[in-house]
Structure formats: C-alpha cells, structure tokens
Design brief:
Blueprint: E1 5-6, E2 25-26, E3 32-33, E4 37-43, H1 50-56, E5 63-68, H2 75-82, E6 87-90, H3 96-106, E7 111-114, H4 126-134, E8 139-143, E9 150-151, H5 156-173, E10 185-188, H6 192-195, H7 204-214, E11 219-223, E12 225-226, H8 238-253
Parallel strand pairs: 4-5, 4-7, 5-6, 8-11, 9-12
Antiparallel strand pairs: 1-3, 2-3, 7-10, 8-10
Helix pairs in contact: 5-8, 7-8
Keywords: Transferase
Family: Belongs to the glycosyltransferase 2 family.
Protein name: Glycosyltransferase family 2 protein
Length: about 280
Amino acid sequence: MSAFLRPAASQDQDPDPETSGRRYRPVTSQFAIRPPVSVVIPAMNEAENLPYVFKTLPDWIHEVVLVDGNSTDDTVQVARDLCPAVKVVQQLGKGKGDALITGFAACTGEIIVMVDADGSADGGEILRYVSALVGGADFAKGSRFANGGGTDDMTLIRKLGNRVLCSIVNHKFGARYTDLCYGYNAFWKRCLDEIALDCAGFEVETLMNIRVVKAGLRVQEIPSHEFVRIHGTSNLRAVRDGLRVLKVILRERGERRGRPRPQPRLAIAPAANRGDVS
C-alpha cells in the first residue's frame, strides 16, 4: 500500500510521530489521502458556468483558488455564494498562463489541480489525477485521446493541429504524449521549482508538458473527457494559438533547463465577510 494511502476508517489514527496532527481526508470508502489538494480555477466572466464547475468538485479537496481575470459579470460573487471558503485572487496581468501562475502561488496544498471554468471538465475525475500522484507520479497529465478519454468540443482543424504539435514535442523531447493542449492537469506543488513557468498565454499548458519532460519528472497520462462549454464563447483561435504553441516548442528546443522562477504579483480579493481563506 502506498505511503500516502490508508483505509478511510483509520483516518484518525496516526502512529507516526513525525506526522502527528496531519489528518487523512476520506476520498472513498476504501482509502483516504494525507496531502491537501488545491484546485485552481482561472476565470473571466464565467458566472453562468461556475455552478456546473463547483457542483462536480469533490468535497474532500483542501481549497478552491479562483483567479479572477477582472470579470465584468458576477463571477466572484457567484463563486463565493457557491463556496464561502473559496480563495479569490485578483489577476493583475493578462492571459491564462499569467492567471495560472498567480493561482499556483496562492495555493497552500501539496497537490495542485488545474480546472477550466467553462464547465468542460468533470471535477469527479480529480480522483484519478490524485491517485496517480500519490501512486508515484510527479505530474498527472489529462489526455482526451488516451484510451478512455474523449472530447465533445474540438473541431477537425484543432484535432489535426493538436496531433501535429504533439508529434513534434514527442520527437523533439522524447515524450510519449497522446494530447498536448489540454488544461486539465495535476501535480505536486514542489514541481513548480523544476519547471519555472514564465508564460502568460494559452500556450502555458504546452510549456508545462515540455518542461516536466526536460526536468526528468515522472508523468502519467490520465484519460479525461472534455465536454462542450456550457455558456459563453471560447477565446481559443486555432491558427493563432497553434502558432504560439509552435513558437514555444521551438524556443524550448533551443534552451537548457534551469532558470530562475518568476515571482507573480498577488492580489487576494477581500473576503467581504464571507469567510474566505486568506
């Protein structure tokens, strides 16, 4: 049995004096986990989608970190109504990469899970990701094209582009990925020191996938199903974003690992007397 897994019934027993005081969190009737799990949700004008996102999140997670990209709708208020303990962090820069880096810095959990705010991800799958991590992986990478995965929200041109770019990364960096541009991933927080993210845009997902390979981290793909965005319009543009991803691939191919980790600017929104985690 993994050092991180024990039957849920023994959650209140901790014979190890070095870890006394750290409780196990029941996940299923079969096991519980010790590492606290943080879920990071970057969001901008996603008030209509958040109820669907929060509905699927497991109740055993340690914290939810919502990174608000200067929304003009009720995104923040809806998040607080759905989860009074949500930690709301105001994004000071722009782009998905910037939002994620900001959210990662605000996490207090040992495990971090990335979830999109458009309702396309099933929070119930978090169990698969966490299981892979406590089972020995450093980075649990979601894949819509691994056996058991799927997608309802990709055009033919995007599928083709993803496949081509994925093949390039596999060839250039020695990876064995089946999916490249997917935002549902999980990892141990300590991995951030190894991959030193410095990307502000959508291509941050590709950058993470490349740098975990360059850093020699243990990666496990997790079959995942992507659903159609529930409300609103996606900001993705196949050609534009594909070229940005390609640029990152070419840049990373010519660079060595080992760079100083950027320090993101943080602005945690006031709790507004709603009991937010600070």
